[in-house]
Design the sequence.
């Protein structure tokens, strides 16, 4: 289940890409943020030996959080969190997961008025087969799958300092992009910053404006893994999610009844499976807006259902309220590529809406 889900994410991430703007029209820089560590010179990673070294660093960090590995140790994990923002469910939340093997696990969660118990016992069962709220989707993603990237991703690297320690920041994007020697991060890049000594992930940003910060003070150790005690997630400079790993321990002897679905679960369908982290460029239809002659991206963080409809969405750039509101309305009223086959997924997307100056809009499109 875990491996198949990751494969879906990687394949989708490989084929979703943003269009490049014409070179003669500059694009507004990625907004300044205290958690944006790549602001200087960036090196395109093309040497084979160095690429292998960086991929090894990334894999080390990925394996540290891979609690769902097929040969992993059975565990019981308890997590609490606080969520805020202009989304459907906020407030105090809680999640507990007991995992024995890929096809035998159970987790429960609550946030606001939402509750869910999901069981895997040969196949999946839900007591509430509905869409997971955006913040709960983010909690699971930042704990279990913070690093997902295609094997052929274009990568750029930049050294940085985080809390007094040397980190290597890796900027990854679709291989269809051309390698750029520009200073700082590009809009289409995801960013991983990893401590070069410990190999632990320190910050992660799937898109500009959204940053997850991993705090290992009083870390939770579980066999070979060292889990952050706290994960803080910021959007457009504001703290929207604080995740606390309360405990993780060996599952021990698990009562089989824990994985027995109720008659209600057996009689109904299940909700969509979580998939996340890919990017799309929104379709046309944005009205031209004066941006001082520059193209201005606004990235919308959204959850899509299997039919391509938007279930929840929020803007990651909010310094211009008009642009943010326009981009958000465009995305909410758009339909994206439906899921073609397989188990139903709720897909986390980062949709890049680009506002262009009037000179880039075809004349017919600008006429009343």
Sequence:
């Amino acid at each position: 289940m875990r491996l198949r889900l990751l494969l879906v994410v990687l394949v989708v991430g490989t084929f979703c890409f943003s269009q490049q703007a014409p070179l003669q029209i500059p694009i507004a820089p990625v907004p300044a943020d205290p958690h944006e560590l790549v602001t200087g010179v960036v090196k395109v990673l093309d040497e084979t030996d160095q690429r292998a070294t960086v991929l090894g660093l990334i894999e080390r960090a990925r394996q540290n959080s891979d609690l769902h590995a097929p040969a992993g140790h059975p565990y019981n994990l308890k997590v609490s969190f606080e969520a805020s923002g202009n989304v459907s469910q906020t407030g105090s939340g809680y999640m507990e997961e007991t995992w024995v093997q890929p096809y035998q696990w159970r987790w429960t969660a609550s946030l606001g008025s939402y509750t869910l118990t999901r069981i895997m016992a040969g196949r999946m069962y839900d007591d509430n087969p509905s869409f997971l709220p955006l913040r709960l989707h983010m909690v699971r993603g930042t704990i279990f799958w913070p690093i997902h990237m295609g094997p052929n991703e274009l990568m750029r690297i930049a050294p940085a300092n985080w809390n007094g320690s040397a980190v290597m920041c890796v900027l990854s994007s679709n291989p269809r992009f051309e390698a750029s020697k520009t200073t700082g991060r590009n809009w289409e890049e995801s960013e991983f910053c990893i401590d070069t000594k410990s190999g632990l992930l320190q910050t992660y940003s799937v898109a500009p404006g959204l940053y997850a910060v991993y705090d290992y003070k009083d870390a939770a150790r579980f066999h070979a893994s060292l889990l952050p005690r706290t994960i803080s997630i910021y959007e457009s400079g504001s703290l929207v999610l604080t995740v606390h790993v309360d405990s993780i321990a060996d599952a021990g002897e698990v009562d089989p009844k824990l994985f027995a679905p109720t008659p209600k679960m057996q009689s109904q369908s299940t909700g969509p499976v979580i998939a996340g982290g890919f990017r799309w460029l929104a379709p046309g239809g944005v009205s031209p807006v004066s941006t001082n002659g520059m193209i201005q991206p606004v990235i919308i963080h959204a959850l899509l259902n299997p039919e391509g409809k938007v279930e929840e969405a929020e803007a990651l750039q909010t310094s211009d309220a008009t642009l943010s509101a326009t981009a958000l309305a465009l995305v909410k009223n758009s339909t994206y590529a439906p899921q073609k086959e397989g188990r139903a997924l709720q897909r986390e997307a980062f949709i890049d809406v680009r506002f262009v100056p009037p000179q880039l809009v075809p004349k017919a499109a600008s006429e009343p």
Remarks:
- Residues 1-23 have pLDDT under 50 and may be disordered.
- The helical segments are 2-15, 48-64, 134-144, 263-267, 321-332, 363-366.
- The first strand starts at residue 43 and ends at 44.
- Residues 173 and 189 are 5 Å apart (CA to CA).
